[in-house]
Design goal:
With about 150 residues, this protein is α/β, with parallel strands linked by helices. Among the domains are: about 35-90, no CATH class; about 105-140, no CATH class. The protein contains five helices and seven strands. The protein has helices at about 15-30, 60-80, 95-105, 120-125, 125-135, and strands at about 5-10, 35-40, 45-50, 55, 85-90, 110-115, 135-140. It has a five-stranded parallel sheet with strand order 5-2-1-6-7, sandwiched between helices. The chain has a two-stranded antiparallel ribbon with strand order 3-4. A hairpin with a 5-residue loop joins strand 3 (about 45-50) and strand 4 (about 55). The longest helix is centred in the middle third of the chain and has 20 residues, at about 60-80. The two termini are about 30 Å apart. About 25% of the residues are buried.
Length: about 150
C-alpha cells in the first residue's frame, strides 16, 4: 500500500462537503499526511464586448472568490487544516487541481463522485478528468444521495 504524505481534497461546496473533509482527515491521520484543500472558481463570462473580449459581470467573480475563501476558512478550522494549505484558484477545475497537486508534490487527490452513468459519464466530470490526468493516486469517493 502507498504511503501518502500530502493529500489534496478538491471541494465544490455542493452536498457532502463535510463528509469529504472528514473522510480525508481520517486518511491523513492514518498516514500522518498533511491535508490541502482546493476549490476552483470557474471564470464567469456573460457575453462579448467585441468579437475577442469576454465581459466579466462586475464584481461577480470577486464575490465568488470572497465566499469561497470564507467557506474554505470555516472548513479548514473545523477540520484542522492549516491556512497555508488552502488553495482557491480561478480557471478550469481539472487544470487547476492538477496544477496545484503538481506544485505541492501531492501524492493523493481526493474528490467526490456522484456516480453518473451513461451520457453523464460520456460528457465527463471533474473527478473523471482528474483521474485521467493526475500523476499521483486519485481517490474518488462515491457520494450517495440521502
Amino acid at each position: 500500500m502507498a504511503e501518502y504524505k500530502k493529500i489534496l481534497l478538491a471541494l465544490d461546496f455542493f452536498d457532502h462537503t463535510d463528509k469529504l473533509c472528514q473522510h480525508t482527515g481520517e486518511l491523513a491521520e492514518r498516514f500522518s499526511a498533511s491535508t490541502h484543500y482546493i476549490h476552483v472558481v470557474e471564470p464567469v463570462m456573460l457575453g462579448m464586448q467585441d468579437e475577442l473580449s469576454p465581459i466579466e459581470p462586475l464584481g461577480l467573480e470577486q464575490e465568488l472568490l470572497k465566499q469561497s475563501a470564507s467557506r474554505m476558512q470555516e472548513l479548514a478550522e473545523r477540520h484542522g487544516v492549516m491556512a497555508s494549505n488552502i488553495h482557491i484558484e480561478v480557471g478550469s477545475p481539472k487544470k487547476e487541481i492538477l496544477r496545484v497537486a503538481e506544485e505541492n508534490d501531492v501524492d493523493l487527490i481526493v474528490t467526490g463522485s456522484h456516480g453518473r452513468h451513461g451520457v453523464g459519464l460520456l460528457l465527463g466530470s471533474t473527478a473523471n478528468a482528474v483521474l485521467h490526468g493526475a500523476n499521483c493516486d486519485v481517490l474518488a469517493v462515491r457520494l450517495k444521495q440521502d
